Amino acid sequence: MSKESLKIGEASKPRYEFRTFGQHFDDVHYKMSRLSVPVPQKVWERQSEEIYIVSRTNDQNNTKIRDGKMDIKTLVDTVDGLEQWNPLMKGEFPMEKSLMEKEVLPAFQVDISWDGGENISLEAFMDLVRQHPQLQAVRVRKQRFGYMVHDTICEFAHVWINGARVSTVNSESTEIEDIKKTLVDVGLEGVENINYLQAIKRVIGMINKPLANE
Questions:
Q1: In the prediction, which pLDDT does 24 show?
Q2: Can you say how many angstroms the Cα of residue 180 is from the centroid of all Cα atoms in its chain?
Q3: For position 116, what pLDDT does the model report?
Q4: 23, 1, 20, 22: which is closest to 172 by C-alpha?
Q5: Which residues, 6 or more positions from 90, have their beta carbon under 8 angstroms from its beta carbon?
């Protein structure tokens, strides 16, 4: 069976991902840019501002808000240190109470409930998060640069986590061997795989562990 040809910004079957965070990936970024095939101009550089909701008890579900919309992905598999994340839900605010109770609140894996009305505004949801001792809302700003190396979708990005600037690099594909080859060629072989949840928790002190090259 022939492998799927990936295209940046387009849907595909679930992909595996390597990602790491740290301070100094200039050499990796340079190699990634030189090895990359041409990519669409729309992914040359992208910026976004998001709010991640992190929980002391949850490392399974990645929950973030961007442009007033809730996006939750869940970790479904790990193979050779590479992670596979699948969409769990997408929703908009104001959000129906039933959707909040069924899809959103269980993702945090804490004891939490909504006692208000049937439609929940973003402001009300954020107040609920701030009042819970196990949850924290974290502001994340991203400046992302997209590439394509060995048929894997790659990225270098500057990321500000509550104002603290770090860098991240990643490679993702439906084909694990293509990711492994990319990691070797850009200089990431043996570097720890750190996803967004783990990186944010380390930066804000929820996990007492450094990033990859600190």
A1: 87
A2: 20
A3: 85
A4: 20
A5: 69, 70, 71, 72
Give which of 152, 147, 213, 148 is closest to 180, Cα–Cα: 152
Q: What is the number of alpha carbons within 13 Å of residue 89 lying toward its C-beta?
A: 16
Coil/strand/helix, residue 99: helix
Tokens of 65: 């808000």
**Strand 61-66 relative to strand 135-149: parallel, antiparallel, unpaired?**
unpaired
Stated length of the chain: 214
Structure-token match 């973030």, residue found = 64
In angstroms, the Cα distances linking 191 to 81, 90, 110, 180 are: 10, 32, 31, 12
At 5, the amino acid letter reads S
Q: How far apart are CA 25 and CA 42, in angstroms?
A: 23
What is the structure's pLDDT at 6? 66
Structure tokens at 87: 């969409």
Burial class (CB within 10 angstroms; exposed 0-12, middle 13-18, buried 19+) of 53: buried
Report the chain (214 residues): mean pLDDT per 10 consecutive residues: 58 84 96 97 97 97 96 96 95 95 96 92 97 98 98 98 98 96 97 98 97 88
Which residues have a Cβ under 8 Å from the Cβ of 205 and sit 6 or more positions away? Answer: none
Type and span of the H or E element at 183: helix 176-186
- Domains by residue range for the chain, with CATH: 16-204 (2.40.320)
Report how far residue 18's alpha carbon sits from residue 70's, in angstroms, rounded to the nearest whole number: 24
Backbone dihedral angles phi then psi of residue 20, each to the nearest 5 degrees: -145, 160
